[in-house]
Write a structure and sequence with these properties.
11 helices, 5-stranded antiparallel β-sheet, 16 strands, 7-stranded mixed β-sheet
Length: about 350
């Protein structure tokens, strides 16, 4: 039987570039190369595409992969049937690609842009398609869809970068009139907690708005929900299934970028330390969010469960969740009976199924 040709896309022009490298390292170390012809293609921070010529995937996070002597400049052609193009001197080599696994977190990878290119190219790919990716990436659009679906979420307000100059004092007044401290401030279009801050007083709030505004014109300000941070992995097309629930104890003020990827303060609990009936509500709600946004393939859906009432409150959805060795998505499905390599198989199968 002919092996499938699979392109693993990683890196990207995104604040989450480094996280993507770590996710790709794990995916490449766990994909069954006896089943697939694997083409690892990295996108540099400057936007250059490179077919990685090495086999030591531990070189990805360190950046050593960039200097491998067998690297080739590459691109995916938007012209159907041309597939992956590699450039060797004056020669262009065309390689058919059966399916792409974009391990590209955040901007230019998770927001519908790479999905649009692959749609034009006619190449199946893992994860939600263009519209669902774009909606899920923009947290303000997600909020509108989730609200329309009747799902409980934190109260929120949109602030634009233009509200932060001469209008800053009025903006702060309006936010203080709507929310009590603390407040959470997030760029609308980043993941991995990039640019996210917890503001406990007015000066904090001003700094948080300016920090988030570095990453996006749209900034989301949310009320603080006191509760456990619960995450659920969802997989599927027409009939998605949810994993067991996981719980994050950040060991910090909140589960920020450092707690996720740099420090060792966070602790995960799988299954989450919540009653079974609450866990079932979380799982059902995760699938409801997934369907409301129009996702397919995979997503991770995050919630709060309040301390006293066990009220389930939607937080956000990630359509290309982390796949690092410590990431919750593969760990949650591992605890649900789907080990990492089989998880990759299933996601590739779903990508091919969705393209028919």
């Amino acid at each position: 039987m002919k092996s499938l040709s699979v392109c693993i896309l990683f890196g990207g022009v995104s604040p989450e570039h480094e996280v993507s490298l770590r996710s790709a390292e794990s995916v490449l170390n766990n994909i069954d190369e006896s089943k697939y012809n694997v083409f690892p293609v990295g996108i540099t921070k400057e936007g250059k595409w490179i077919l990685y010529g090495g086999k030591d995937y531990s070189d990805l996070p360190s950046g050593r992969w960039l200097t491998h002597p067998d690297n080739r400049q590459a691109a995916i052609s938007p012209i159907r049937g041309q597939g992956l193009l590699t450039f060797e001197g004056d020669c262009v080599v065309r390689q058919q690609i059966d399916v792409v696994f974009p391990v590209l977190h955040g901007e230019n990878g998770e927001d519908g842009t790479i999905q649009g290119l692959l749609q034009l190219a006619g190449i199946p790919y893992v994860g939600p398609h263009v519209a669902a990716s774009a909606v899920a990436m923009d947290k303000t659009l997600t909020k509108l869809v989730v609200d329309q679906a009747g799902i409980t979420q934190a109260a929120w307000k949109l602030v634009r970068r233009s509200d932060m100059g001469s209008r800053m004092e009025g903006t702060l007044d309006a936010l203080e009139a709507k929310f009590a401290y603390p407040m959470f401030v997030k760029p609308a279009g980043t993941g991995s907690s990039v640019g996210v801050s917890k503001a406990t007083e007015r000066e904090d709030l001003k700094k948080a708005l300016l920090e988030a505004g570095k990453y996006d014109d749209k900034v989301l300000v949310e009320e603080f929900i006191r509760g456990r941070e619960i995450e659920v992995a969802v997989m599927g097309n027409e009939s998605p299934v949810a994993s067991v629930c996981g719980e994050i104890d950040s060991g910090a003020d909140f589960y920020d970028y450092d707690a996720k990827y740099i420090t060792d303060t966070s602790v995960s609990y799988i299954p989450a330390r919540i009653p079974e009936d609450v866990a079932e509500t979380v799982r059902d709600t995760a699938v409801k969010v997934y369907k409301a946004i129009g996702c397919q393939g995979l997503s991770r859906v995050d919630f709060f469960v309040t301390w006293q009432e066990n009220r389930v409150v939607f937080n956000e959805i990630n359509t290309i969740p982390g796949f690092t060795s410590i990431s919750m998505y593969p760990k949650l499905f591992g605890a649900s009976g789907v080990p990492y390599s089989q998880l990759i198989d299933k996601l590739l199968e779903l990508a091919l199924e969705a393209s028919k």
